[in-house]
């Protein structure tokens, strides 16, 4: 069973959006998938409630209430949506649950500064330092050809963390979330540019590079 965590102390960077989309991706690939929501805001669980019955099932777990005690045996991938403001002991505890950690970062000066501090803190966590958990960053809500994206792109390229993908700002993410879907479940004519941007991320997740 693999555990993939979306983590960043900053709120609003796309943890829940990436978590729901990764869950939907693996469910459509035929795997057993659970979404463990560690955020009391429970966006992940709300999304599961919206999910249509005719789509591959995703099991919802209220991680903030009971941790990962009730993961069914049929589950191959547990996608963990972590809360914002995770630091110190809480961060150490969260990291215990995952072997793969994705940090979404927005193209904004405040977010980039916060990400620098957060990534240093994350890299200092014993489990990450010993490479028992692999981390990567993903740029999210990117508007191409903007100065701030260029800055983020350059920053992430030189940060000493694998920079796996850049996802554009798109209504598709809002549309999909509202319907309990992932962007892979939207029609191709709408979502193909997003599918292309996800390719390096899903490839990384399926490769040994994302596993200890
Ligand atoms: N790539 C994107 N394009 C457009 N909107 C996005 C994108 N990623 C996230 N959002 C929106 O940004 C807001 C914050 O995202 P969310 O996933 O809830 O962040 P977090 O879980 O880190 O707080 C939500 O309204 C979400 O729909
Ligand atoms: Mg969230």
What do the pLDDT scores average to?
95
Q: Kindly, what is the distance between the CA atoms of the first and last residues, rounded to a whole number of angstroms?
A: 13 Å
Rg (CA only): 16 Å
CATH class: Alpha Beta
The counted number of beta strands is 7
Walk me through what this model shows.
- By secondary structure, the chain is of the alpha/beta class.
- Helices cover 43% and strands 19% of the residues.
- It contains 9 helices and 7 strands; from the N terminus they run βαβαβαβαβααβαβαα.
- The chain has a 7-stranded parallel beta sheet with strand order 3-2-4-1-5-6-7, sandwiched between helices.
- Strand 2, helix 2 and strand 3 form a beta-alpha-beta unit.
- Helix 1 (15-28) packs across helix 2 (43-50).
- The protein is globular, with a radius of gyration of 16 Å.
- The model has no long low-confidence stretch (mean pLDDT 95).
- Magnesium ion binds next to helix 1.
Quick summary of this structure?
This protein has 212 residues and is α/β, with parallel strands linked by helices. The protein has 9 helices and 7 strands; from the N terminus they run E-H-E-H-E-H-E-H-E-H-H-E-H-E-H-H.
């Amino acid at each position: 069973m693999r555990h993939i965590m979306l983590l960043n102390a900053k709120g609003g960077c796309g943890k829940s959006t990436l978590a729901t989309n990764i869950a939907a991706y693996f469910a459509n690939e035929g795997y057993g998938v659970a979404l463990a929501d560690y955020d009391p805001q429970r966006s992940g669980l709300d999304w599961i409630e919206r999910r249509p019955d005719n789509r591959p099932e995703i099991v919802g777990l209220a991680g903030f209430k009971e941790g990962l005690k009730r993961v069914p045996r049929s589950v191959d991938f547990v996608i963990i949506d972590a809360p914002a403001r995770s630091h110190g002991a809480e961060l150490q505890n969260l990291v215990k649950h995952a072997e793969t950690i994705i940090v979404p970062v927005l193209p904004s000066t405040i977010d980039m500064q916060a990400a620098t501090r957060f990534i240093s803190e994350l890299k200092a966590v014993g489990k990450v330092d010993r490479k028992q958990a692999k981390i990567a960053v993903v740029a999210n809500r990117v508007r191409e050809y903007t100065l701030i994206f260029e800055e983020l792109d350059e920053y992430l390229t030189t940060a000493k963390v694998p920079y796996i993908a850049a996802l554009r700002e798109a209504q598709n993410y809002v549309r999909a979330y509202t319907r309990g879907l992932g962007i892979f479940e939207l029609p191709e004519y709408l979502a193909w540019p997003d599918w292309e941007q996800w390719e390096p991320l899903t490839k990384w997740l399926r490769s040994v590079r994302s596993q200890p």
